[in-house]
TrEMBL record:
Record's subcellular location: Secreted
Family label: Belongs to the glycosyl hydrolase 5 (cellulase A) family.
Enzymatic class: hydrolase
Glycoside hydrolase family domain sequence ranges: 61-305
Enzyme Commission identifier(s): 3.2.1.78
Keyword set, alphabetical order: Glycosidase, Hydrolase, Secreted, Signal
Name of the protein in question: mannan endo-1,4-beta-mannosidase
Catalytic activity annotation: Random hydrolysis of (1->4)-beta-D-mannosidic linkages in mannans, galactomannans and glucomannans
InterPro entries to which the protein is assigned, alphabetical: GH, Glyco_hydro_5, MAN-like
Length: 470
């Protein structure tokens, strides 16, 4: 398979650059040489089903290869997952054999041009019980519990006492001795969904701890980005939480998690996937005006996150994946949506090609210099997600008559739509329009007649209107 190459993802010399917030346009990311960086790829946080070290690393190589061959350049890994956890025998004791696994992972990332965001921690409580399984992920840290000869009584001890804070910092310091200068690492996330931990002070205490730890972690990793994450944005009441965390000056990326969830309190979480993904980005962009926004976890679940969505079984074409990839970026995010359920959905249905179609749709663009302004409107039952730039306008068109409910539950395949689109929303006159069909991977040029563009497509199409003076 041919490896895709756009100017923001290729070049061995560029792989040696770190990733930073753009110094020209802080809504986007760039390499340390100033070349724009759009992180394209899913979460591949841990291996769910395999425990053998050699086989797990082989699986990661296969995933990195699949992603790279489809234009991808990014993933997220949990260092707190048992396979990579360096501190698993005793509090403050670090396992060099586990370090070698991380070393190998970073070698593979370098080989395939993948930048990794490492999530440092995820546990939610302290008990004396060991994790019931080793191949997945545990939400407990028994080695820290005094019931298991550890130094802490509970999560309050971890978050409030200096002894607890030092445990976190010492683990960061140990990792920094090995990886602070590694350019394969994009950044460090302090905690997965910090609001989910068992802490008596609740969100206020978690915010204060985050405020304290962000600059500490940055001091150990000055070349890497640092950030925090909250749980799924599935309740309107969480807007204050997201505003507070996203606005922290040391939180370099405003991240949001959002899932299609039939049990969620907020109706938007049962909307078409493009709408629920877009709305999350739009809300965060209204909260912060000077930093990148990324939909860093997105997918579909059974009610109240009780498991992967059963929709995945019938979505062999990747309708949900297509929408969650395209909608965030075309709503002003610094990246396409970063999907969850890598094994239950992407690998099972062999959907890696969707990342390649996004890379094709956005090849040779520079979001930093374009200074994109997102614009949304509906016309003739089509949702138009526009990025108006300095030299062109990029538009992702999504048929509103077709969605996950009509296709995956109603079993209604979409018809081709012919739409006549008046071009008054453009700032400049255009005579020709580039069309890219992400489902067939076909590109063509269409002539504009009387300031109206006639487009025929199924589900979605991407348009590029180049300014006449460019």
């Amino acid at each position: 398979m041919m490896i895709l190459c756009s100017f923001f993802s290729c070049g061995k010399e560029r792989d040696q650059n770190f990733i930073r917030v753009s110094q020209v346009n802080p809504r986007y990311l760039e390499y340390s040489d100033g070349t724009p960086f759009i992180p394209v790829g899913p979460n591949i946080c841990w291996e769910r089903f395999e425990t053998d070290e050699t086989k797990v690393l082989q699986l990661y190589e296969q995933r990195f290869r699949n992603l790279s061959e489809n234009g991808g350049n990014y993933t997220r890994i949990w260092l707190s997952a048992p396979f990579f956890e360096v501190e698993h025998k005793k509090a403050g004791e670090f396992d060099e054999n586990r370090v070698k696994r991380i070393d190998k992972l970073l070698e593979l990332a370098t080989k395939y041009g993948i930048k990794i965001k490492f999530c440092l921690e995820n546990f939610r409580k302290l008990t004396g019980y060991s994790a019931p399984f080793s191949s997945s992920v545990a939400f407990d840290k028994p080695i820290y519990s005094c019931d298991n000869r550890g130094p802490l009584s509970d999560m309050d001890d971890f978050f409030k006492t200096q002894q607890g804070k030092n445990l976190y910092i010492d683990r960061v310091a140990f990792l920094a001795t090995r990886y602070a200068d590694n350019p394969a690492i994009m950044g460090w996330e302090l905690w997965n969904e910090i609001n989910s931990v068992s802490f008596s002070e609740g969100i206020a205490g978690e915010l204060e701890w985050t405020r304290e730890m962000l600059p500490v972690v940055k001091s150990y990793f000055p070349h890497h980005l640092v950030m925090q994450s909250l749980g799924s944005f599935d309740n309107e009441k969480y807007q204050e939480w997201y505003t507070d965390f996203s606005s922290l000056s040391d939180n370099e990326i405003a991240q949001v998690h959002r899932y299609l969830d039939p049990g969620a309190a907020w109706d938007i979480c049962q909307a078409p996937m493009d709408s629920l993904a877009s709305q999350a980005v739009v809300l965060l962009r209204s909260m912060v005006v000077d930093k990148p926004v990324i939909l860093s976890e997105v997918g579909a679940v059974e009610a109240h996150h009780s498991g992967p969505s059963k929709l995945y079984e019938s979505d062999t074409l990747g309708i949900l994946l297509h929408d969650l990839i395209f909608a965030p970026f075309f709503s002003g995010a610094a990246a396409p949506g970063q999907s969850w359920h890598w094994q239950y959905y992407i690998e099972k249905n062999n959907l890696w090609w969707h990342f390649g179609r996004f890379s094709h749709a956005t090849e040779n663009i520079n979001p930093v210099t374009e200074q994109y302004q997102p614009v949304f409107f509906m016309h003739d039952q089509v949702r138009f997600y526009c990025l108006k730039g300095n030299t062109h306008t990029l538009v992702w068109c999504r048929d509103a008559l077709s969605n996950w409910h009509t296709e995956l539950i109603g079993n209604l395949l979409p018809d081709s739509r012919t739409v006549k689109l008046p071009l008054q929303f453009l700032s400049n006159k255009v005579s020709d329009v580039e069309q890219y069909d992400p489902w067939s991977d076909v590109r063509k040029v269409t002539h504009v007649v009387d300031d109206t563009l006639e487009i025929t497509f199924k589900r979605s199409v991407v348009l590029r209107f180049n300014n006449e003076n460019h």
